[in-house]
Amino acid sequence: MIQQNLIKALVALVAFIVAMGVLGFVFEDELTAGTTWVVQRIGFVGLAAILMVTDTLVTPFPPDILLVVIAKSRLSEEWPIYVGILGIVSVCAGMTGYGIGRWLGHFEWSQRLFGEFKEDHRTFIRKYGFWAVAIGSITPLPYSVTCWTAGVLGIRWSMVLAASVLFRIPRIYLYYWLLSTTGSLFSLG
């Protein structure tokens, strides 16, 4: 199961890099204008607030778009600081999602909903709980879903926090680096 998820994550990552590289090359001027507009209107604090919401709640908005905003705006001048702060915000959001999952786990309807899943995967979760969260932290799949599920299934908060810090923050740095360099991979000059 872990190997299958890692393969899916790698395929999704490659597809994401190629798509962002092609889009960045084809629409570079529009992307730069759009990201500059976003930063002027909401600033970095607004970007961090968006990430807090998207990594806490299950939303269709991919938080990696915020890395594109940093890469294509004036924020790129001090990207290590901004990307690091986004990494910390993401972990805080994930732990908030974990808390929501723990709270939901106390309701009968939630226990029934997750009951079959819980029984079927109890051994897996006990054995690979840390690695399940680690995989959820690095894949392009919603991190919020991983953290909610960890909460509902009762994975220890310290395990979720450790996996998130050790894998989510480096993942955000890696994705930023990949996003900021893919434009040059597809450029003509």
Automatic annotation (TrEMBL):
Keywords: Membrane, Transmembrane, Transmembrane helix
Annotated GO CC locations: plasma membrane
The keyword Transmembrane is annotated on this UniProt entry: yes
InterPro entries, A to Z: DedA_domain, VTT_dom
Transmembrane region(s): 6-26, 38-59, 79-100, 128-151, 157-178
Stretches assigned to the VTT domain: 82-178
Short name of any one Pfam family annotated for the protein: VTT_dom
Domain of life according to the entry: Bacteria
Signal peptide: none
UniProt entry tagged with the keyword Cell inner membrane: no
Protein name listed in UniProt: VTT domain-containing protein
Organism listed in the record: Azoarcus taiwanensis
Lineage: Bacteria, Pseudomonadati, Pseudomonadota, Betaproteobacteria, Rhodocyclales
